[in-house]
Amino acid sequence: MVRNVPGSSSAKTYRCPGCDHLIPAGTPHVVAWPAAEFGSVEERRHWHAACWSARDRRGPGRRRWR
Q: How many Å is the maximal CA-CA distance in the chain?
């Protein structure tokens, strides 16, 4: 599952698993997690929108998404 989060809804700072940099509070970004019964709140990951878009083009060892 993937959801776009507008900056106005982002109140916390997160670390992007795509680039390992911080996503400051108030920054629009993407939240992704496994669908239905396969995922849980603990498995949500917050990504920069550009990192999420580039996740399939990254080389081995650079992606931290499991």
A: 34
